[in-house]
Amino acid sequence: MGKKKATIKDVANLSGVSIATVSLILNNQSHKFSPSTVDKVLAAKETLNYQPSYVAQQMITKKTKTVGLIIPDITNPFFSTLVKGIESVLYQDDFVTILANAGTDELKESNYLNELARRSVDGFIIASSAVSNTEINQILREKNKPFIVLDQKNQKVIVILF
Length: 162
Known about the structure:
By secondary structure, the protein is an alpha/beta fold. The chain has two domains: 8-52, no CATH class; 61-160, Response regulator (Rossmann fold, 3-Layer(aba) Sandwich). It is built from seven helices and five strands; from the N terminus they run H-H-H-H-E-H-E-H-E-H-E-E. It has helices at 8-15, 19-26, 35-48, 54-61, 77-92, 106-118, 133-141, and strands spanning 66-71, 96-101, 123-126, 147-151, 156-160. A five-stranded mixed beta sheet has the order 2-1-3-4-5, with helices on both faces. Strand 1, helix 5 and strand 2 (96-101) form a beta-alpha-beta unit. It is elongated and about 60 Å long. It starts with 7 loop residues before the first helix and ends with a strand. 22% of the residues are buried.
């Protein structure tokens, strides 16, 4: 059986400080504490190989560092190159790309928009021609989700950032 994953409470116990202190130090607020306290917390984190819970961080920050990317066909060389470029740029800022290969199916795109919004992606890049402005308004604007639409029909880029 595997070793139990270290918790923030374990880091606090080992370093002899409160959970709140550990949380603040690990969330870039170390300037509020003495260097010796910061060193103890960081040493305990290292010793325990502590990794913050992604889900817990998401609940606090309301950010997922993910972007939903909807395209019609990953086998099309244009879209595979586009995806590679987008992923490369987002990765530089520690974002993860969730790819949705929707074909030209409007219902599938609508389902992807809803599902990605439900999964709390931080924004959308829509490079597909099937999704309608009505769907975008109902799903993304009402949920205040930033998005970029690469409109193939009119050869223009629409960017809406809230």
